[in-house]
Every structure is written in C-alpha cells, then in structure tokens.
Amino acid sequence: MALEPVRTAVVGCGYISDIYLKNATTWGILDVVACADLDMARAASQAAKYNVPRAISVDEVLDDPNIEMVINLTIPAAHSIVGLAALRAGKSVYNEKPLAISREDGRLLLEEARARGLRVSCAPDTFLGAGLQTCRALIDEGAIGQPVGAMAWMLTRGPDHWHPDPAFLFKVGAGPLFDMGPYYLTALISLFGPVRRVTGSTRITYPERTIRSGPKAGTPITVEAPTHIASVLDFASGPIATLLTSFDVWDGYRPHVEVFGSRGTLGVPDPNTFGGPVRLQRDGDEEGSEIALPFAHAENSRAIGAADMAYAIRTGRPHRANGEMAYHVLDVMHAVFEASDTGRHVELASTCERPAPLPAGLPEWHLDA
Predict the structure, then answer these.
(1) CA 32 to CA 8: how far, in whole Å?
(2) What pLDDT score does 45 carry?
(3) Using N-to-C axis directions, what is the helix angle for 103-116 and 323-342, rounded to 10°?
(4) Which of 34, 50, 133, 231 is the most exposed place for a label (fewest CB within 10 A)?
(5) Residue 58: which CATH number?
(6) Using one digit for the tens of pLDDT, what is the confidence trace for 243-265?
(7) Average pLDDT in the 264-289 region?
C-alpha cells in the first residue's frame, strides 16, 4: 500500500535550495507544499521554478497546521532558531548542517522533539549515497579485516575564492570544521560508530580575507573561526582517525578518506558526494581495484535524508540521518576546539548508534518502508 506523502515546507531559498527542491519534489514520499524565505521574492522565484504551490513567510509556515515537516536551509546561525520554532509548532525538522552552533541549542532541539513526539534529522545525508553505503557494506562483511584507523582531509583555498557571499562561512559556528567537517565525521561515524575521545590543534592563518568573486568582490572579511584544524579521533569501537580540515592551502589537494584494516585498505569517496569511486586493496594485491556500487543514489541526492525521515514518520521506524548522530558530530567538533584550547584529550559526553544500512538493490527514489 502506498504511503501518504508528508506535507513539507522548505525554509531558506538560498544557494543550496536548488538541489534540495529539485530532489525533494521528485520523491513521492515528500509533498513540497511551500517555499519560505525572509526575501519573499526569492521564495516566489524558487516556488515557481520547482512548481511548488505556495511562496509564504516563515510565520505562515509555522501557523499552517497542514504542514508536517520543515526542511530548514537557513544559515547556520538560524538552524536552531528556525528548527526550534518548527518543533514548537508541531512539525518535524530536517536541518542543514550543522544541527546547531552551540551544544546547548543542539540538546534543546532533541529534547523538544522528544517531548512532542516529533523527529529531528540533519544533513549531511551523503552517507546514504551509493559510494558510502558500498564502503559500509565492505567493512561490515570484513573485506579489509578489522578496522584499524582512517585518514581524512579536506583542504582548499577557502570559499572566499568562489562563493558570492562567503562571510558567514568565516563566522563562529562555521570555518572548515563546522562547514565541511560534518561530511567527514558523519561518514566515519556511519562506518565505525561513535567517537570516544578527541584531541586537536587549530589556527587562524589569515585574520582578514577578501571576497574574490561575484557582486561583493573586493569586500574584506574578518575571520572569526579557526581555518586550519588538525584532529585525532578515537572511536569507541577501536579505530583511530586523523582528520585535517583547512581553508588555508593552495590548489592541488582533493577531499579524500582512506580506511585502514588488518587485511586491506579502502579508498572512500569524497563524503561531500554520493557516488564513487570506491577502491579496495587487500593483502597480496599491489594495484587494488575499483568496486562496483550495488546501491542507488550515486548522483547528487541531497534530500534523501529528509525522504528517509518522511518514510520513518509514516511507518514508525528509526530514521537514519538522525538528530542524535548530528548532535554527536556537533559535540565532536566543539571537543576538538576545546582540546586545542586546553592542550589535552577531551572525552565525549555524547554518543549515538550507527544508522542502519540501506538494503542493496533498492531502485532510485525509493527507500525501504
């Protein structure tokens, strides 16, 4: 029996909303009924572009009892504000990452959802893509033996070189760890489970930067968040990972993850994408080989996490890109900063479950009910 679609509003119609609206309006489990933004002209433009019936204010979204879920694509500083307002209006929430800026606000979102019997979900949902699901299956079936550790790095010159309005990415609650780190941390947690303790070092290399492109080119930016962060993550299940995130390096580096096991090494695709390549090299195989992806959603599938939560709302099962994992990611990032400030290891107070894997062989635009 077909499930009734979950009536959904997209709040925040900026840069990232295009791919979300394109995909969300394709999922049969999502009925996107409204777009909202502080800029009503922008909301109207996106609604028209993706055949969404209404462009309304955020207050109208909150006041509409027929809207069941909000996909919250606002700037990071507004994630907890809009998310909490939606929960208090009786709506489940899918937040863009990070879940919130502070631990306190992240905990408040989870507590409010539990008290009201609602759901909180959060980006990134790239770990539900074909590439990372293939890696998960290989690790779970013992293809590399016992996982020993991992190395992950995200090194760029920074969004001031390409983003038309990047100032918010250098504010507190952003920077490379809070902006891009959730992709890497979520991927690693989906492979290994929760983190037990961390340590790390941080720096701001350039206290002031200049926007290089778009209508604001030449505008200076005061940098508030660390822009080069080296961290070490001890996972409760045993592996030790090194994560390096930076907006301070020159061209020539690409996002990458490698997982090392007792009997092989797994080349994990860029966790900011949904596809491959996935490479496996085992004892006695000097060259290694690329692994075929037996899962769907290898293209840019942002909103798959929201669709998974919609299935979960209708069926009562747990959803995979869940708020507890997103809060654990937030906790890890703050702990890395604390470790740098205090010169010590920081034990994590939070934990989470590994999200359930997706079954292989599902068709595009469909998840198990």
Answers:
(1) 5
(2) 98
(3) 160
(4) 50
(5) 3.40.50.720
(6) 999 999 986 566 689 999 999 99
(7) 93
